[in-house]
Design brief:
single chain; about 55 residues; 2 helices; elongated
């Protein structure tokens, strides 16, 4: 018996709805925006501390 035959080809059970997938996408985009804002703020504060701004 090969390893590939042990892997199920179809899973039964609950599937994610479009709303859940959309919510996940919104969460990831918001998290990325928050991270970008944090990086920008950190860079601005570092420049100001060095007297470059």
């Amino acid at each position: 018996m090969t390893r590939a035959s042990l892997v199920p080809t179809q899973e039964y059970g609950r599937k994610a709805t479009w709303f859940e997938l959309f919510f996940d996408l919104v969460f990831v985009v918001d998290l990325a925006a928050l991270a970008a804002a944090q990086i920008t703020l950190s860079l601005l504060l570092a420049r100001r501390a060095q007297g470059q701004a």
